[in-house]
Specification:
Elements (H helix, E strand, L loop, with lengths): L7 H5 L3 H20 L5 H18 L9 H27 L11 H4 L5 H36 L5
Helix pairs in contact: 2-3, 2-4, 2-6, 3-4
């Protein structure tokens, strides 16, 4: 994660370069957030694009008490919920004829974690796994070297 923040005035002036930078910095994280909730790859991409479009449309009323990241991820969260609701409605209407009492998508719509927190936790988990792999690699190499130095030479 970087400490980069866009220039809100440039965004409000619809500066293409500034919006491209926003997309470059946030598209991957938004996609990762949506991926945890939406299974369909095409739908994920649609939700992310709808999030950016919502940000462009609403930037004129940006409230500076929030960070831009909070603003963008809030829009993404709402677009994800909208998608899940639409999907749930279509799933329910297509399953009306079946006698199935299982709850549909109820656990996906309600989530108390923040979008940025989820992505940050994934980043930390990935860094931890990389560190663990490096430590294990070093340990195996040291153990191997110790074995070679104590083993008797071949005759």
């Amino acid at each position: 994660m970087s400490d980069w923040a866009p220039d809100i005035e440039q965004l409000q002036a619809f500066d293409d370069q500034q919006w491209l930078e926003v997309e470059r910095h946030y598209a991957g994280r938004l996609y990762a957030y949506v991926s945890r909730r939406v299974l369909d790859v095409q739908a994920r991409e649609d939700v992310v694009q709808e999030s950016f479009l919502g940000a462009v449309r609403g930037i004129a009323s940006f409230n500076s008490i929030y960070t831009f990241e909070q603003y963008l991820f809030g829009i993404c969260r709402n677009r994800t919920i909208d998608h899940l609701r639409r999907r749930r409605a279509s799933t329910l209407s297509s399953m009306e004829d079946e006698d199935d009492d299982r709850p549909l998508l109820d656990s996906l719509v309600h989530n108390d974690e923040t979008p940025s927190g989820i992505i940050r936790a994934d980043d930390i988990r990935g860094q931890g796994m990389g560190l663990l792999a490096d430590i294990l690699k070093d340990w195996v190499q040291e153990t191997w070297q110790a074995e070679l130095s104590t083993a008797s030479p071949l005759r």
